[in-house]
Amino acid sequence: MLRGSPRLLLAAAVIALSGAACSGSVPAGAIDAERLACPEGSDCYDPPRAPGDGGMIAMNAGDFYFDSFEGEVAEGDIQIMLTNEATGTHNFVVAGANEGSDAKIEANGGGEADGVVNLFAGEYTFYCDIAGHRAAGMEGTLTVTPELTPVQQATGGSEAPTEG
Fold first, then answer.
1. For the chain, how many helices (H) and strands (E)?
2. Contact at 8 Å (CB) between 129 and 34?
3. Is 58 exposed, middle or buried (0-12, 13-18, 19+ CB in 10 A)?
4. Pairwise CA distance, residues 100 & 153, whole Å
5. Which H/E stretch holds residue 150?
6. Phi and psi for 19 in degrees, rounded to 5?
7. Three-class secondary structure of residue 18 per DSSP
């Protein structure tokens, strides 16, 4: 029969079992591994981005319309070329574009601008965010597919150019 404090015996049993449970459960390399540090200014989170080349879109904008697209598009980085046929400034914004995309591609009257948006396959609304332009018809839908396909005409905006 064992003599001694029941608490002392219980504590010894817990320590013995803990040591047995931990031995061999951690790989030897993990104990010696160095911790990885986040790059300066990073919060250690890489937002999701669609892989791939994405393709290219050329688009004309005028007074309160986007004209038809030309080019090919697939998920990934999509090069956007915006030609402004009007005298005033217009821009191209894609709602829901992935982080790292150009937030706004803006061209002054008679000018051109380009930028890159990163998109997964799906349907996206694009628009001009200058006050009153979207409500006047400068909005449409861009369909992005997993594989490169010719771009279809924008929907939602005026189909016919107006005098600008």
1. 2, 9
2. no
3. middle
4. 26
5. strand 149-150
6. -65, -40
7. helix
**145 and 75 Cβ atoms separated by less than 8 Å:** yes
CB atoms within 10 A of CB 112: 13
Quote the CA–CA distance of 148 and 54 in Å, as a whole number: 7
pLDDT in tens, 27-81: 666 566 666 666 666 777 677 889 888 999 999 999 999 987 888 899 999 999 9
Cβ proximity of 49 and 78 under 8 Å: no
Closest C-alpha to 55, from 153, 155, 152, 149 = 149
Instruction: Read off the pLDDT of residues 80-117 as tens digits, 9 standing for 90 and up.
Output: 999 999 999 999 999 999 999 999 999 999 999 999 99
